[in-house]
Design brief:
The chain is mostly helical and about 425 residues long. It contains 20 helices and no strands.
Length: about 425
């Protein structure tokens, strides 16, 4: 009876998402309803209380978003975009792969996909339109780059933090497991999209005439600084050992705060306003990211109380390739329906990875598959904020945009799955 009722609740939650109800509301109510089935409603409230103040997630995620807001306020993000796009100016066929790559790299520094599109779009879109590309190609290039998973290589990203915390794997191990399949899938999707667009002869060949601004090299080099600091201080990379308290490397929040201080020193104008931007970014992260993690945790608490998580773990961990396919299918489908990649990815990590912490390779593979599938699913969702923003910026319909990006993302995910299966 509990199993049957649990399935009904999950189907009702899915229906609510299809009706465009807020993801956080659906997750919390579904978790509470599941817990009530076994007369344990307090586990949901206790989980809410513990997660809303969990420094292991709040610290890296909020500091990373605060840093992104400072980059936007000081113009460092657009300076980096101009520098990265410089080699493609006037070379029409390079604009699609370069545009996607620039969005991907920018998303590594700015973990919000919509904020990435807002930084890259005003420069990339006029450049592509001036080169003769139609708006739909410019929009697809922007959304593929901005939402293709670059944030999954930022140690402060919520998906990566959830994999790290749930599997108890070191952050560098989670990054290593994520990088190869993600890059392979993204590169495959971009190449297929570029060839498809070139073969369609989208637009007339002309020369881009986007107004050039004086290069700001120092500002352009600042956005990736915290990520570089984290990688440089990984144990065994440049230093065999590090003194306490950095035995496990530089904490993400430390790197983001240090990067912010360096940006403020370099910029030096309106420092008080830039500090305000940092805390506004932290607040944005709590409202839009931490809240999803809190409610996802409540949903998982309810799911665990009914015994459903054990069944889910059995499905994805005990059936070889079929299990890996399932690990990507469910988060990806939920991301398409809800428009959020974070909610499905974090929920999957918290439900599936803790019992598999004794088998780290498997846990990291499943976590990576779920996170990448959720990222790709968000990028082809008609209710995703980054899709709506990119469509609005270029004047195309969201359904036209999805028609362009969905096929190439599905092909890209086949490459993701092939990499994970091959190394497993």
């Amino acid at each position: 009876m509990v199993l049957a009722a649990s399935v009904v609740i999950l189907l009702l939650a899915l229906y609510a998402l299809l009706r465009a109800m807020d993801v956080r509301l659906v997750l919390f109510l579904a978790g509470l309803a599941l817990a009530l089935l076994v007369l344990k409603p307090l586990v949901v409230f206790d989980t809410f209380l513990s997660e809303m103040g969990n420094g292991k997630t709040i610290g890296p995620i909020c500091s990373a978003m605060g840093y992104a807001w400072v980059l936007r306020a000081t113009g460092c993000d657009q300076a980096m975009v101009r520098l990265l796009l410089a080699p493609a100016r006037g070379v029409r066929w390079l604009l699609i792969p370069f545009g996607c790559a620039v969005g991907f790299i920018t998303n590594m520094a700015i973990t919000s996909q919509t904020a990435t599109a807002a930084a890259v779009g005003p420069i990339l879109v006029p450049l592509m339109l001036a080169a003769g590309y139609p708006p739909i190609v410019a929009a697809a290039t922007l959304v593929l780059g901005s939402s293709g998973g670059g944030s999954l290589l930022n140690p402060g990203d919520a998906d990566l933090v959830a994999i790290h915390e749930s599997s108890q794997a070191p952050m560098h191990a989670a990054l290593r497991a994520m990088s190869a399949p993600l890059v392979a899938g993204f590169a495959t999707a971009v190449v297929v999209f570029a060839v498809w667009s070139w073969r369609r002869h989208d637009g007339a060949a002309s020369v881009a005439t986007e107004e050039k601004k004086p290069p700001q090299l120092l500002k352009a080099l600042l956005p990736p600084l915290p990520i570089l600091l984290i990688f440089l201080m990984l144990p065994g990379v440049f230093f065999p050992t590090l003194p306490p308290p950095f035995e496990k490397g530089l904490p993400v929040s430390h790197a983001m705060i240090a990067g912010t201080m360096i940006v403020l020193f370099v910029h030096r104008r309106d420092v008080s306003q830039q500090v305000k931007s940092f805390f506004e970014g932290m607040g944005y992260a709590y409202v839009h990211v931490i809240s999803l993690i809190v409610t996802s945790s409540c949903f998982i608490a309810g799911l665990s109380a009914t015994g459903m998580t054990e069944k889910l773990v059995h499905v994805v961990s005990g059936t070889g390739v079929a299990g890996k396919v399932a690990a990507g299918f469910f988060p990806g489908l939920l991301a398409v329906i809800s428009g959020s990649g974070l909610g499905p990815s974090v929920a999957f990590a918290k439900a599936v990875l803790p019992p598999l912490s004794g088998n780290l390779p498997l846990a990291l593979d499943l976590g990576s598959l779920a996170a990448i599938a959720a990222s790709f699913g968000r990028t082809m969702s008609p209710v995703s904020a980054v899709v709506i923003f990119s469509a609005t910026l270029t004047g195309v319909s969201t359904w036209q945009l999805i028609h362009r990006v969905a096929p190439v993302l599905l092909i890209g995910y086949v490459a993701v799955l092939a990499v994970v299966v091959a190394r497993g």
